[in-house]
Amino acid sequence: MKYQEIRSQARSILKEKCKVCEDCNGIACRGQVPGVGGKGLGSSFIRNRVMVRETSLNLDTLVPATETDTSVTLFGKKFRFPFFAAPIGALEINYHPSLNDLTYNEHMVAGCREAGIMAFTGDGAKMEYYEGPLKIIQDNEGVGAPTIKPWDNAMALQKIRMAEAHGVTALAMDVDAAGLVLLAMAGTPVYNKSVEELKELCDSTALPMILKGIMTPAGALKALEAGAAGIVVSNHGGRVMDDAPSTIEVLPAIAEAVKGKLTIFIDGGFRSGEDILKALALGADAVLIGRPFAVAAYGGGTEGVRVYAEKIGQELKEAMIMTGCHSLADATPDKCWKR
Asked: What are 55-86's pLDDT values in tens digits?
């Protein structure tokens, strides 16, 4: 299956909620929540993409010719590429009912594993939205990371125990989901989390705990204090606050504060292998991609997910060759040029 075929099929399915734009930049879908857009005027989603595009790579091919290694080792596991599928939930509401939270993650977890990477799965108002994907991860040798909403700690601890029982690779909590009012309307409210509450959760498990939704150095230091193994620099794809800065803008300062002390992921507007390399050069250890992976799943199922991942991986390898990077460790800030 070719990538353009996947996109064409997805466009025919998703046309009411997602236009499958040539550049997924938040303009055509602005304000569509529920849907795939950003909150309000869509400013945060749009800014994420604009600022990634305004960051360029410096060409440098005057280096020795050696093999290019795109692999990364995180939490004791080696992955083929340093990017992963971001968690997405409520597929029937936000995308199209041809996939639900269970069938979507069947494609996502399996397709990512086939490509040598990992999917982060989601959570929602119904327990089945969290529990179903856990079994899928278990069936894929535990290669996956469930993401828990910031419920009260009693519920969060229950879900941590469930994740442990299914042998997952890591565990995340999208603390930026505290702004999702639809969950409160469904009778399942989410909350802001103090360092003390997060420390209770991190201390309760041997699984690496990743806190998603960190946008400042102070927030990253709080995550470190709480005992997190990693963070995701994320503004929730622009879906919880209209006027947030872009993630790539805040990444260097966050990396300066905590690089080497915990694993730094980032999401928000990364669409190509060149974009992945930009994020690594500015301090990330890995990148999460959301909406384009959803398009791949709708347009091609498991095969679509694998094809998309391999496409981005090949683009990353080519970008590394053209910037003189033999391994991901060579992706340093001098590889980037900003307007």
From this structure: 999 999 999 999 999 999 999 999 999 999 99
Q: Given this model, what pLDDT does residue 181 score?
A: 66
Is 83 marked as a binding-site residue?
no
User: Which of 96, 107, 166, 236 does the annotation list as catalytic?
Assistant: 236
Dihedral of the CA atoms 85, 226, 245, 212 (nearest 10)? 20
Q: Is the pTM of this model over 0.90?
A: yes
Annotated binding-site residue? 327: no
The pairing of beta strand 336-338 with beta strand 286-289: unpaired
| CATH (residue range 3-330) | 3.20.20.70
Question: Would you say 239 is a known binding-site residue?
Answer: yes
Q: Let me know: does 143 contact 169? Beta carbons within 8 Å.
A: yes
The Cα–Cα gap between 255 and 261 comes to 10
User: Is the CB of residue 243 less than 8 Å from the CB of residue 44?
Assistant: yes
| 3-state percent helix, strand, coil for the chain, nearest multiple of 5 | 45, 15, 40
Task: Kindly list the distances between the CA atom of residue 10 and the CA atoms of 29, 223, 287, in Å, as whole numbers in the listed order.
Answer: 16, 37, 23
Q: Is 306 flagged in the annotation as binding? A: no
The reply to whether 96 belongs to the active site is no
**How far apart, in whole angstroms, are the C-alpha atoms of residue 144 and residue 14?**
26
**How far apart (Å, rounded) are the C-alpha atoms in residues 3 and 111?**
14
